[in-house]
Amino acid sequence: MKGMTKMKFRGVAALSAVALAALTACGSGSPAGGGGEITVGLAISTLDNPYFVALKEGAEKAAAELGVKLTVVDAQNDATNQINQVQTFTTQGVKAIIINPVDSKQAAPAAKAAENANIPLVAVDRSVDGGKVVSEVASDNVQGGTLAAIELGRAASGEVVHLQGIPGASAARDRGQGFEQGLNSGGIKVVASQPADFNRAKGLDVMTNLLQANPGIKGVFADNDEMALGAIKALGDRAGKDVAVVGFDGTPDGLKAVEDGTMAATIAQQPDVLGRKAVEQAVKAARGEAVQEVVDVEVKVVTKKNVAEFKK
Amino acid sequence: MTTVASRKNVKVLSDNGALAGLLVLVVALSLLAPSFLTTQNLLNVGVQAAVVAVLAFGSTFVIVSGGIDLSVGSVAALSAMVGAWSSAEAGLPGPVALLLGLGTGVVAGLVNGALVSYGKLPAFIATLAMLSVARGLTLVVSQGSPTTTPDVVSFLGSNLTPYLPVPLLVMLVFFGITGFVLSRTYSGRAMYAIGGNEEAARLSGIDVRRQKLVIYALSGLFAAVAGMLLAGRLSSAGPQAAVGYELDAIAAVVIGGASLSGGVGRATGTLVGALVLAVLRNGLNQLQVSPFWQQVVIGAVIALAVLLDTLRRRTR
Q: Are B58 and B218 in contact (CB under 8 A)?
């Protein structure tokens, strides 16, 4: 019996050693040592979306330029996971933490963990409800939704449908709210609002189904470009001809659709700028310099006229 | 004559609880949503069912043999991404890229099978690990961005004629293959035998470990085909494609009357199960049910469908 336990223990120990070695080999950032070097932790909501990948890349570039070390963790859209990751940061000796909350309303415990450890916290892209942050770097989703409604009103008149993001997600709430606020100004009327979970395949299916019930629609607003691209697939030849589609985010594929004329407009956020500004503020906070409490990164309406400025 | 025919119909329905459920749904939706019962919409439902149906056909093999495959959604995404990447980034010809993608599915399935049969891992854990690894590899290959698919893959998502969508044809072909494998091949009979009683199957001379390799490889291949269909419909393979589809596939198989403890399950049942899910989602959109309620309704219908089937069996 005793031998068994020992053997088992040895097995586990060997496995842990292998895992540790593998982690050290894979990890880019070693724990922040002395030598005055600053490490900043970036807790990102998901890397399963080109938008957040761009945000991460913007942050990495800024970190390289400023000569600080950036450790990135991905919460895979799980709010609990993210809280754990931020807690882990607090024990790793990072000098500032940037959080891109999975959900604004569920990020307060993460903020608390940073506060308890006396580490400045910067929120990027989404806010932290009920938690203390030194700086909030975001683009205004409500305003973006309103701009989308105005743009759709310009490109179409008559019945439109709204493809919503994941029910209850803050970006879906804010964009939808802004969209509804902007409706008064134009000659468009929403005849159907259905969720397609920010997903391209679901955008295609939901749009196909809505077209059956509402064949005469003239416009579509989708809470993100992925769903808008799915809707364009469902519309086929009608997209850009007698149905105007407006998306949100300005992803590479979205911009390409605007250029091709199948998407009337998209509301471009600038994820790389968001990432860059967040790192700048975090580094300032880590160095004890003054930080800007709110950094507004502009959202921009992208149409065929100005799409070239956004394509890289 | 008519009474004999109607009696026969009643028997077909009572033999297949899921089919009865599907018919109830179709009748209800036809009454509630005027645009539901149109040729175009029914074709749409077929196309929308195709991806989950093909995934579920692969899962039928696994579930009949008493296993489970949680990795099919991730494997579908990885296979499609490998196919798209091989053509768009590595510049390989479309058909070669397609084969590489399908091969990726088979390899993932073989790894699952080897972990289950030779590694003695519970299927739940082996395929849960693959769910994570395959999704991660999809991100690694794609660098987080959607990738354009080659023409041959996009063809899988197109229409031959306005009334002949390719995904529907692929679904029917794989329906046929599944039925054939289950009822007419050695491996098919081995699946029922292993699912019924693994020890008895081994003692009767079935090479259980080898058959498990075949079973999980088939599931991986079917997942790859489903991934290609999904990517083909969008002309693009996405890193976040098919997240959570494994649960839809398992639901379709179980709604279709298969038992999660193995030994029971048929291709027709699985097809009906996939159609139930597709009809339901289509109908919820057309009726404009609130997004907050849709998930409640879907869950309730899944539970009801399986409950009806269980009750029917018990009263016999």
A: yes
